[in-house]
Design a protein that fits this description.
Elements (H helix, E strand, L loop, with lengths): L4 E3 L3 H13 L4 E3 L3 E5 L4 H8 L6 E4 L2 H14 L8 E4 L2 H11 L3 E2 L10 H5 L11 E7 L5 H8 L3 E12 L4 H9 L4 E4 L2 H7 L5 H4 L2 E4 L2 H10 L3 E4 L5 H12 L11
Parallel strand pairs: 1-2, 1-9, 4-5, 4-7, 5-6, 7-8, 9-10, 10-11
Antiparallel strand pairs: 3-8
């Protein structure tokens, strides 16, 4: 058996990513180093949900944030409020919003070449934002690029944390894999998770291929000592699998990352 590709995406989306990688001829092991946990609705959060129709735009940063938003609408809005423009960082987030809410969603155009905050911020409708009220639906922590940039463009931004990331140590066997570099590649789409996993990565691991979903993560990987980050065009299974194929095509496999 060949060395596996290590992935750390939690939940059902992790299963979808694993299936996509396996379909291209790779072995996969899941690190199970992070889970996502929805936050409760304190009074301030409930007030925001009840007044969500006061916002001109809602920007959603991840599929789990989109799921939390959909569940909030189920609790507080028998019918969806009108007059809101929805934006998503990435096609997976947009698909979750469309499937659960049935709304049209603004995403970076295909020619942008990536599913990132930077690509979303390049949209023409997110440039001049004077007097615009924008709700940013995200997890706890994380970088502040979206909110800060929208505010610099004149928007009144409210950031709403709807979930937290819970980190844990990989199993002892997987810690050894990380320490020894005994894997084909490591696939990571979160800066916080990359910093968490770097604790177990010795020199052999730092020399192995690392697949990341943005140039920002590649820059972080460089600072952490990873020698071979490969930037995918986004965080979708297709984008990550295509980057994986470029980094380490398994011998004899007929890899078609466009499928």
């Amino acid at each position: 058996m060949s060395a596996p590709v290590l992935i750390c995406r939690p939940g059902e989306r992790g299963e979808v990513l694993a299936d996509a990688i396996i379909a291209q001829g790779f072995e996969v092991e899941r690190l199970e180093a992070m889970t996502l946990e929805a936050l409760p609705d304190p009074p301030a959060l409930r007030t925001t949900w009840l007044n969500i129709d006061n916002f001109h735009k809602v920007v959603v940063v991840s599929p789990f944030a989109a799921q939390c938003l959909s569940e909030a609408f189920d609790r507080y809005w028998p019918q969806l409020p009108v007059g809101i423009d929805y934006y998503a960082v990435g096609n997976a987030t947009a698909a979750t919003l469309h499937e659960t809410l049935g709304v049209a969603v603004h995403v970076p155009p295909p020619q942008a070449g990536e599913d990132t905050s930077e690509a979303l911020l390049a949209l023409g409708s997110l440039q001049g934002l004077a007097n615009q009220r924008i709700l940013l639906v995200a997890g706890e922590g994380g970088r502040a690029l979206l909110g800060e940039t929208l505010a610099e463009r004149g928007a009144n931004v409210t950031r709403l944390a709807v979930y937290r990331r819970c980190f844990k140590a990989p199993s002892i066997d997987l810690q050894r894999r990380l320490q020894d570099g005994n894997y084909q590649a490591l696939v990571v789409t979160s800066g916080e998770l990359l910093e968490h996993l770097a604790k177990w990565c010795d020199q052999a691991a730092l020399n192995q291929p690392l697949i990341v979903s943005s140039r920002r993560l590649a820059t972080l990987a460089d600072t952490l000592g990873f020698r071979a980050p490969m930037v995918a065009s986004g965080a979708t299974p297709n984008a990550l699998t295509a980057a994986l194929a470029r980094a380490c095509n398994p011998k004899g496999a007929d890899v078609d990352p466009g499928t």
